[in-house]
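Note to self: user wants both folds in one dump. Writing first protein now.
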Amino acid sequence: MRKIVLDLAVSLDGFIEGPNGEIDWCILEEDMDLPGFLSGIDTIFYGRDCYEQWGNFQPDPNSDEAEKQVWDAVRSKKKYVFSRNTNLKVKDTLVTTEVAKTARELRQQEGKDIWLYGGAKLITTFLKLGLIDVYRISVHPTVLGSGKPLFEDLKERFHLNLIEVNRFRSGVVQLIYVNRDDTEIGRNRGF
């Protein structure tokens, strides 16, 4: 079965964006092996806002080749946009109802893993529905003070098992968790 993998950056104080949506604090270094991660997925899940900002992002023409290759790889994936807005115009697959059913059906299909890209509302929905298999959270050495929190409006606790920690030269620490029931599965899948 494919895994739904939440992979994102978070500030030390738990925000995924600054107060104005800024992500200029995110550090990307070669050791993080984003191309390796992207080679292990073939599908990306977006919420509406996140898709509008990043779903078809084109890097600046003056960007270095590595960044251009990363965005080419992202654009090559099958994309699903989850939104209640039935009038939303997207060039990819729009999912407006039956979020859990759609995600579970896609997880059962043959293929590589699925990247739960975001945003915060979609991430929280997937968490509440028990649809996140692997949490790859890269904690950046930046305190934003305010912004968009990683998880919003949770009414209950969720317990996870830490299965791997990666530390990078920049001070970023990547924490990889699985749901408690999936610990052995996570280890067997290389997470």
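First done. Writing the second protein, which came from a different request thread.
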Amino acid sequence: MKLQVLIPQYKETDEVIGTMLDSLKIQQNVDFNEFGVVICNDGSDVFLNESLFDNYPFKIEYYKEPHRGVSGTRNACLDHSTADYVMFCDADDMFVSACGLYIIFQEIDREGGFKTLSSLFVEEARFEGKPFYVNHENDATFVHGKVHNRQFLIDNKIRWNEKLTIHEDSFFNVLTQTVAGEIKYSNNAFYLWRWRDDSVCRHDPKYILKTYNNMLDSNTALVEEFLNRNMADSAKYHATNMIYEAYFTLNKQEWIDQENQEYRRAVENRFKKYYSTFKILFDSTSDEIKHKIISGIKNRMFREGMFLETITFNDWIKQIESQE
């Protein structure tokens, strides 16, 4: 089998996951003998009706696992998979294009295949109750629209970090893309990140403020992983990037507003630990790399909206270090 889609399932019902499966059923110009789906239940008491799977022209494997969280369940899906290539999908999403699998198979069939394929994907969002759609270019933030050579993951011991349940995608994606070195990109969007009314990360305006500590946890795990793999340059780069990212993020207006000072204090307390842990990596990063990181972050944040440098980086670090 060439490709399997791997789906963790927790509270998603037949109706919800059926949308994903239906979007796969209508794929064009694909030999479904070369394609399959692996679904793992994450210790939930909401089980899928396995007769549902009879409606589809491809093989669907359903496993009931103990509760391990999203990262652990994705690992379970990977352990059950047997295909040459795997794609991690969420149960409540879907393929946006009926030629999506054909696009992936084209890349798989090219000479040499690929280690990791990263594509543009579409986000379904809401404005004043009405849907609109946003294209996300190739990135390492979201799991969506990415396909991996399964043996490459196995050979390099690349797995989801089971301690991470928020911002866990960044750990896996950055690790995979860094170890792969050469990433194949596709500007053909075939994956839709669907809107959910109960999706906290998209309709809670303070989601980033509330979970920035989790982002620091995810990056900590990533840097430690690189150090364990003797990838010192990657460890230095991503630690330095996170340090500057935190500085510029906390200079955004939302972090300066008085109503959000509780979140700011919590993040600065967590950042103090982060900085003391990786200061030696930051100090050993060349000025050239630091300038490139700063330039990249500034350019991105100017596109997202103006931010204020209310305090210099050096003064902020001194302030952090002096906190009790």
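Dump finished. Worth passing along: The radius of gyration is 21 Å.
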